[in-house]
Amino acid sequence: MSMLLKEQEAKLSIIDSIANSQQALARILSSIADISSHSELSARSLKENIRLLTQYQATMCEMLQGIKLCHPRSGTPAPPWLNASRLPHT
After folding, report:
1. What stretch of H or E contains 11?
2. Which domain of life is it from (predicted)?
3. Residue 64 contacts by C-beta under 8 Å, 6 or more apart in sequence?
4. Given this model, what pLDDT does residue 79 score?
5. Which helix (H) or strand (E) holds 40?
6. Per-residue pLDDT of the chain (90 residues; tens, 9 = 90+)
7. Could you tell me if residue 75 is left (phi over 0), alpha (psi between -120 and 50 degrees) or otherwise beta?
């Protein structure tokens, strides 16, 4: 088996694992949504665990793709930088 084929199979296996993990997470969320609404501590703990799992999965995806995924940032965007020499003269 060629190295390229082995690499592709490994990547497909990891993608399948991530997809299964997402499905399991959806089932967990569905089954404990009612319970978490009654306990603030449970809701916070669940939120943190989901955040960590999502971060791990994003890292695995980035490794598979060989590129970084865009991570959302909060804040006020800066105004666009314009090169004065390229502005049209009016």
Report:
1. helix 3-36
2. Bacteria
3. 11, 14, 15
4. 81
5. helix 40-65
6. 688 888 888 888 888 888 888 788 778 777 777 666 677 777 777 778 778 887 887 787 777 777 665 666 788 888 877 776 776 765
7. left
Considering the entire predicted model, what is its pTM? 0.49
Residue 24 has which token pair?
Answer: 């399991």
Alpha-carbon torsion (7, 10, 16, 19), positive or negative: negative
In degrees rounded to 5, what are phi and psi of residue 88? Answer: -65, 140
Phi, psi of 56 (to 5 degrees): -60, -45
Q: Put residue 8 in one of left, alpha, beta given phi > 0 → left and psi -120 to 50 → alpha.
A: alpha
**H or E stretch covering 72:** none
Report in angstroms the alpha-carbon separations of 13 from 10, 19, 44: 5, 10, 32
Instruction: Enter the tokens of residue 43.
Output: 């809701």
Kindly state the tokens that stand for 6: 């082995």
